[in-house]
Design goal:
The chain has 114 residues and is mostly beta strands. The protein is built from no helices and seven strands. The protein is elongated and about 60 Å long. It binds zinc ion. InterPro entries: HSP_DnaJ_Cys-rich_dom_sf.
Length: 114
């Protein structure tokens, strides 16, 4: 027997049902403000069945899924890879002064705590 379904395709964070059953992210203590794009959710539905609530989600590229962003003059953390002294690459966080980061580059920063 087929299951009933009512699938909708929200086309962005402002669409109806975009945040249905998407929880708010807990605020990371190093981040200042709710993300202006995803309003603290970090992700939104791009497809959701309003009957079963099975869904597919997109990660917010403004806050990289954190739901919260850095504001003001705090340095902005960007992910990077460096070679350790033993020659192995490893992830590091480079903190860039806020005034040196373009608005359109902010989405690449605002990291979750390493
Ligand atoms: Zn966001």
């Amino acid at each position: 027997m087929p299951h009933a379904s009512n699938i909708v395709y929200p086309d962005g964070p402002d669409a109806p049902h975009a945040f249905d059953i998407v929880p708010l992210k807990p605020r990371n203590g190093t981040l200042d403000a709710m993300c202006p794009v995803c309003h603290g959710h970090g992700e939104w539905n791009v497809e959701i069945d309003l009957v079963s609530f099975r869904c597919k989600r997109a990660i917010c590229d403004r806050c990289s899924g954190a739901g919260w962003v850095e504001t003001g003059d705090d340095p902005v953390g960007f992910p990077d890879i460096e070679l350790a002294p033993n020659g192995q690459p490893h992830w590091v966080t480079n903190y860039i002064p806020r005034e040196d980061v373009d608005e359109e580059d902010l989405g690449g920063g605002n990291l979750l705590a390493p």
